[in-house]
Structure formats: structure tokens, C-alpha cells
Amino acid sequence: MIQLIRNTNPLSLVLVVLYAFLIRCPMLFHSGVYNAVDYGQPLSFLTDVLCKVEPSNLWYHYVASTVIILAIAFYFSQMLSTNKIVEKNGFLPAFLLILSASLFSDFNFISNELIAFVLVFISVIILYNTLLNDSKHSGLFDAAFFMGIGAMIYNPIFLLFFTVLASIILLRTVQLRDLLITIIGFFVPVFLVGTYCFMIGRLSLFCSHLLPSMTVDFQLINKGEVWEYIKLILFGIFVVLGVLKGQAESGKTIVTVRKFYSISLLLVIGIALSLFFSGTLKVTAFIYFSIPFSFYLYTSVKDLKRIWIAELIHVILIGLIFFTSI
């Protein structure tokens, strides 16, 4: 499978699309009603609007979430190729992002975390393109703006704003103007929504839901679901190994690749910290690791001479996805 999607021919495109729908189909066997909307977020109504289209229809969640992930995956692959981060054209990065964003069945539903994930992805891509061109400033505002909207849909990613600031300080010639533009960009949507809440008399409620919780409940998965914990451990192992491999190779690559390694590392740190401020920590929160996770997976398999090792790992992950979902 991995060998077949290394090219950009129509067959590879069709295979990736079919793969996305097949790997996410176990959610159709989900029993009960999935409560996707967290009404404790300032902009949770955006998720609510999408869910109210077909609130209990698994097919709607299945198709809508898969189309969202496909769009993100293909743009991710195209961005890496355009900026020469990947050495060969192909849909392998898109394939790996789809895999990492489908590891848990909870990833496959329309939820606050998924909608905020789209905004975080847009913010990271804008940030990276801006850091490649030191003369651009509007991109800093745009990246922070999308991050601000995302933080009001799922407030634990409020901490990812500091990832944006850290990226600017470490990967760009620091100017006070850049920091001010970024801070203003993040708080503009917060100010606009806060103003609206003030006008309708709900400012205190808005403020109480704006910042993430300072406590966390680590009861992620029901006791007895051992395989889910195994997937979670494997997920964490791959992220850690990817970080170590990225740091080892960062000095051997061109500037564009080194910057993406650095942003991925800062993103991993920011996401990990945000998990401790999520109140009740849910598996869906781990979808934010999909961006750096898929990039690290790509760096691990792109030069692998024994491709059967990558295929074996892929088959094991697929088996765990289906075994724990059906």
C-alpha cells in the first residue's frame, strides 16, 4: 500500500481517498449516541450547528469528518512538496496524516476538537509559510487570528498561542512589531466575541469559559479497554521517536526542513502541555498530535530500505483500529 501511493498519478489519488473512507468506516458500528458538542466553550455553537444537521446520523458524521480530514491531508501533502520538505512528490504525507487522524474512533465524529483542529492546522501552515519569508507580517496576524478562534471552540489549545510566539522568537529575527501583531491577531476574535457577549448580557459566562481548566481528569478510557490504551501508548511512542529522529536529522537538512522540524517540536510541546489544562481529558484531544505525528512518520519511512517493516507497522495499526472499533 505504501509503495503504491508514493506517486501522484490518478490511481494513487483514488487509493488515498478510498483508504480514508475505509479506515474510518468502523465508526459506523458505533453503538449509542455520541455527544460531540462541548457546550462549555465560547464558540461551541459552531460545532452545534454542524451536528444539528444530522445529530444522531453516523453516516453524516462519517462522511463529513472524512471529507474534512481528506482536505487537510491533501493540502498538507501539497504544502510539504511545494516547500521542498518532502524529497519526492507523492501522497505519502497525506496517507500518513489520514492514518494518524483515524487511530481512535472518537476522532471520526464532528466535535469541538475536530473543528478546532482544522483552525490549528490552518494556523500552523500560515505560520510556517510566514517564517520562510521574513519580510511578511500579515501572516503572523492571520496565524494568531485562526488560533484565537480555535481556542474559543476548544479552549485548551489556548496554550498553543505560546507555541506561535515561541516559533517567532526562535525561528525569526525578533522584532517588537512581530510580537505585537501576533498578540493583537490572537485577541481580536476574543475581543469581538466578548463584545457581542457583553451586548447580550453574557460577558461573565463568556469569561468563565474562556480560559482552560487548571485541573485534569486522566480517566481517558473506560477500565477494561486495554487495546485502546495500547493504541495510546503506541501513539505516544511514535511521537517521541519522531521527535528524537527529527532532532538528530535537523542539522543535516536544508533550512526549510529544519524550520518545519522546529515548529513540529514546539507544536508537540504545546499540545502536550494543553492536555494538562483540559478539565476532563478525552481521547479526541490527541487528534492535534496528527500534524507532527504524520510528519515524523514520513521522515521514518521515506528512506526505509526494507519497506515491509513499514507495511507491517501499518497492518498492526489498521488491525488495532478495526479490532477496537467494531
Structure explained in plain terms:
The relative contact order is 0.14. Helix content is 65%, strand content 1%. The mean pLDDT is 76. The protein has 326 residues and is mostly helical. It contains 13 helices and 2 strands, in the order αααααααααβααβαα. The protein has one domain. The protein has helices at residues 10-23, 44-52, 58-82, 92-100, 112-132, 138-153, 160-171, 176-199, 203-210, 226-249, 255-274, 290-301, 307-325, and strands at 216-217, 279-280. The protein is globular, with a radius of gyration of 20 Å. Strands 1-2 form a two-stranded parallel ribbon.
Fraction of helical residues: 55-70%
Give the number of helices.
Answer: 13
Strand order of the largest sheet: 1-2
Percent strand equals under 5%
Radius of gyration: 20 Å
Low-confidence parts, pLDDT < 50 over ≥5 residues?
none
Globally, the shape reads globular
Query: Which structural class matches the secondary elements?
Result: mainly alpha
Mean pLDDT: 76
Summarize the structure.
The protein has 326 residues and is an all-alpha fold. The protein has helices at residues 10-23, 44-52, 58-82, 92-100, 112-132, 138-153, 160-171, 176-199, 203-210, 226-249, 255-274, 290-301, 307-325, and strands spanning 216-217, 279-280. The protein contains 13 helices and two strands.
